[in-house]
Design brief:
single chain, 175 residues, seven-stranded antiparallel sheet, 4 helices, 28% strand
Amino acid sequence: MIRPNRIAGAVLAIGALLAVPGCAVRAQPEVPGAAAPARETGLESTDPCALLTEDELAARGAWPPGYPNRNVPAEPGCDYDGDPFGYSFFKNQEMTVESYGAQGNWAKFDRRELNGRAAANAINASSTGGRICSTMFDAGGGVIIVTAGELNDEGRDECAESWQVAELVEPKMPR
């Protein structure tokens, strides 16, 4: 069965990619002819579709199960339709909150701390009208990104929502 909000979910997924551009940027410059260094982190086995339980997701209005988002190879993710918010979860083993913050494409990049970890709420300059906000925090040598998008503009705070969901995910992630 195809969900009526599948299109809305696809829009959220595209918006999430716009909200966190440069996702596939390598943390180290490529050297022609050199092999990429192997870098294992604590996020290697992390499944973005398993960051929260179905009960935790349903309590926030999401409709499990999620569906994989493989639009950016360096940043596998998982999208959930929902009401009033749709959600996307991503991991990136090559970036950190610091390296994302160094990019010049943010309309908002509020550095914060989440349980002793570097964190930020971020809105990309190209998606300011999209009612999409991402909360990211350092984990396992990389970064976890939680994106919330309000599907119908009802004046809710998508940055507060993504932060609250990140607070649920954070204790489950490696340092």
